[in-house]
Design the sequence.
């Protein structure tokens, strides 16, 4: 058997008898300093262990989210009616999608940018309406000319008042005029305003009655409005309850639509309030509620190819004319982002790792782009966006997975005069490179190793300093003794 004395011979930590050790004041001071140093360095090492470090690399884009990119937006246009607001996208590959409605919602807004009612439901942009023959005789005058002075009296006198808001220079107004006047004459003969009084067709020249047209939010010509007696009462927000006519513009089509408006109103009630107009007739297919305010909030998303392209918001119609000198495409961007929408929790987790990330995810949020007319009319507001994909990869628990994929962008904006209808254009271009941010966690073994190194290193350095100090003091004492002798 191995004796205990042989086992004791391999002891690395041999003890010195207490009666052979000597405590000193300098050794005590160094011990306190060493303990405080160990505690301080341990705290720094623990903080470094808990702090997340990352490495950044720029590589060729290897997106795993397909060939399409989602654009989410929420914008308010104080001077663009929801009636004609159109969203379109185009790209360098020839894609040209106009009047996107499936994923878009519109709300009429007032000057304070707050919605004035429920969602405004758009109909497809009309490109083919039936008009009368251009050779029609335009000398017939069957409709009444209405001005700001007599508009209210007409709207309160007739259960149905149909008004054609027009401009003399407008091409579509000129095409409508013969049919409108003939239809007005026919309706006047069938429903005499003096004897019957159920319906009246009228017209307003918007170049003469600017304020009247502005009050009814007329932004394109011709705009045919249907006013029902008693329903167009202005409340404290200035809302109007009436409808827009979007049916055929030939004489027969107009007369048929007007007949359907009159049909539900009994003759004996012609001087009472009109019905709500919710009866099921074919007229429902050619009219819809008119906008309650002159502005529009547009929100939703579109999907585009990952190539340079454009998101365009403008006024569009295939059967109306716009006065481009009066159009104002000023807008306020509440939200504009690319890629999948990020939940607040995900963004919070990411910013905990990388505080600077996410600052350019929605760079234009809260920005206002207002045209104060300093540069004149026909102003298009353009935004140039450079988009870069950023991917964050975490390696916690020895497993590598993607924590976030987001698209950040830079934006530069300008106001440009144009000969075309003013618009708000967002030109976007994706970078062929992507930024990869990788989390580099520290292992626990590395932490323990550093802690042991701190303890051993401080202990050793303190021992060396103590030995130097002790030997120096002994030497000084010997020198003093030698001098005394």
Sequence:
């Amino acid at each position: 058997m191995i004796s205990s004395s042989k086992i004791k011979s391999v002891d690395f930590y041999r003890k010195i008898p207490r009666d052979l050790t000597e405590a000193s004041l300098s050794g005590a001071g160094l011990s306190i300093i060493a303990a405080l140093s160990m505690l301080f360095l341990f705290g720094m090492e623990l903080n470094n262990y808990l702090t997340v470090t990352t490495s950044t690399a720029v590589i060729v884009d290897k997106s795993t989210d397909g060939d399409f990119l989602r654009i989410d937006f929420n914008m308010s246009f104080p001077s663009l009616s929801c009636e004609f607001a159109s969203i379109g996208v185009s790209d360098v590959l020839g894609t040209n999608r106009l009047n996107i409605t499936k994923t878009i919602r519109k709300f009429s807004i007032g000057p304070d940018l707050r919605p004035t009612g429920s969602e405004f439901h758009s109909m497809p942009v009309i490109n083919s309406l039936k008009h009368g023959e251009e050779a029609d005789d335009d000398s017939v005058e069957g409709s009444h000319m209405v001005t700001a002075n007599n508009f209210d009296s007409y709207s309160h006198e007739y259960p149905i008042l149909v008004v054609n808001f027009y401009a003399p220079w407008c091409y579509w107004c000129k095409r409508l005029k013969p049919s409108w006047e003939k239809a007005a004459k026919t309706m006047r003969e069938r429903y005499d305003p003096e004897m019957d009084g159920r319906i009246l067709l009228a017209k307003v020249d918007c170049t003469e009655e600017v304020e009247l047209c502005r009050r009814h939010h007329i932004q394109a010509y011709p705009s045919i409005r249907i006013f029902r007696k008693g329903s167009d009462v202005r409340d404290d927000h200035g809302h109007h309850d009436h409808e827009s006519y979007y049916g055929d513009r030939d004489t027969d089509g107009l007369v048929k639509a007007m007949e359907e408006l009159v049909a539900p109103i009994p003759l004996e009630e012609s001087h009472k309030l009109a019905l709500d107009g919710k009866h099921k007739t074919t007229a429902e297919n050619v009219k819809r509620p008119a906008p309650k305010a002159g502005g529009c909030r547009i929100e939703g998303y579109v999907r585009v190819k990952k190539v340079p392209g454009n998101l365009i918001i403008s006024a569009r119609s295939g059967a109306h004319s716009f006065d481009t000198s009066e159009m104002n495409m000023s807008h306020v961007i509440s939200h504009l982002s690319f890629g999948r929408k990020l939940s607040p929790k995900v963004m919070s987790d990411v910013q905990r790792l990388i505080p600077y990330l996410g600052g350019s995810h929605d760079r234009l949020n809260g920005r206002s782009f207002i045209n104060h007319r300093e540069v004149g009319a026909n102003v298009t507001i353009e935004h140039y966006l450079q988009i870069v994909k950023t991917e964050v990869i975490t390696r916690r628990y020895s497993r590598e997975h993607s924590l976030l994929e987001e698209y950040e962008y830079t934006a530069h904006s300008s106001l440009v005069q144009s000969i075309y209808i003013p618009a708000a254009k967002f030109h976007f271009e994706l970078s062929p490179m992507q930024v990869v941010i990788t989390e580099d966690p520290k292992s626990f073994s590395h932490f323990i190793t550093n802690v042991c190194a701190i303890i051993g290193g401080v202990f050793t350095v303190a021992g060396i300093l103590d030995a130097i100090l002790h030997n120096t003091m002994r030497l000084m004492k010997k020198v003093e003794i030698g001098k005394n002798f």
The chain is about 25% helix and 30% strand. The chain has a mean pLDDT of 81. The CA atoms of residues 73 and 336 lie 4 Å apart.
